[in-house]
Amino acid sequence: MNDIETKVKDFEPVNIIGGGIAGLATALALKTLGIDYNIFEKSSEIKYENVGLGISANIFPILEKWKILEETRKLGTEIQDFYFVDKDLNYLNSFKIKSPALSVNRRLFYQLLNERLDKEKMHLNCIKSINDFSENEIVISADGINSVTRQKYYPNLKIRNSNQILWRGISEIKLSEKFQNAYHDFIGGNLRFAIIHTGGDYYSWYVIKQKINNEKVTLDKNTLKTFFKNYHPIVNSVIDKTKNVYFSELLDINPNDRKNLSWFKNKKLMIGDAIHPTTPNMANGACLAMEDAFLLANLLSKSSLTLEETFEVFQKQRTKKVDRIVVQSWWFGKLFHSKSKVFDYFIKAGIAITPNFLFDKIYSNVLDKTNVDDSYE
Ligand SMILES: Cc1cc2nc3c(=O)[nH]c(=O)nc-3n(C[C@H](O)[C@H](O)[C@H](O)COP(=O)(O)OP(=O)(O)OC[C@H]3O[C@@H](n4cnc5c(N)ncnc54)[C@H](O)[C@@H]3O)c2cc1C
Q: What CATH number does residue 120 fall under?
């Protein structure tokens, strides 16, 4: 038996709490490296809402290693152009995305991940906490933004509420060629609407607005449409052609609040939204979770590191990138939801004159592979 096998045998199976993207991706990363795992998911099935998911190009080599890149491509389409438009669909500025992202149906992507895993290692209807495991067992808490592990370790660490609320869905609708392989972001007026091609005649969309005190949230399409009565009619047509509308509050944890906190204690580690949730303005939380999964499995397979060193290296390598995205995403959200009309005017004017290289620079944070770089080999 070689060194790698000896180390792996010390901690197998790896127990994963949560069957969201972080949990499923960790299981697949471990499986790819021949490491045994168990997933415990509280729901009765692995599934997600019928909404869009943006997968940035830095994740493609990871999906390739997991042998799901080609299948993932079939679940959506490439996004090559990013357009900022005003409410009348006047083009304010456009950016060519140098490394196009994939825009896929999130429900189908979960199905794909799930299909690649072993049914007998997937434990559904199973609510777990770290207390259910012995001291010697490894547990990866991938239990999302309301992580019970995080609340147990850090009861005073608070979730931050941006006070922005979001509705989203996927529409089946015929749109002109300009909308194909493109992302249209309608900005201004403290309201955002985006139309993102997800392949064929399918377009994912979202609405983000600042929450008004005591606002009663509804999933009714007609109410949503009233927000856009003065907009170009394409907005309400897209909303109209949606079967199901879903709602989210935009939350994160301020990286400053967790800056001196360890992501692990002994053999228990937190990953994904459980420890570094982000608002979705950079569309990257799930991508960060997949990078977590990839790096973690690679580090676990390295015989030269003890488990404690593995977790230490993991947190150190992930912190820089994760924090940059969380902070950038938070400020993007603030920028687009100013109540001041003057500020709103300057934002639109600023967007209109932003050069392409600046857009590339901002997006380069998302594409940065340095935190998982040596594991790409
Ligand atoms: C509106 C919106 C749009 C987004 N769009 C994008 C995007 O385009 N691209 C992108 O990369 N990211 C996007 N994100 C971010 C992304 O959704 C999250 O970062 C990602 O889903 C986090 O995955 P996770 O597995 O860590 O957590 P979750 O998805 O929350 O999964 C946690 C899982 O754990 C389970 N669980 C919880 N507690 C227990 C327990 N005690 N026992 C067992 N199971 C348990 C839950 O049922 C759930 O299945 C978006 C987020 C939002 C809100």
A: 3.50.50.60
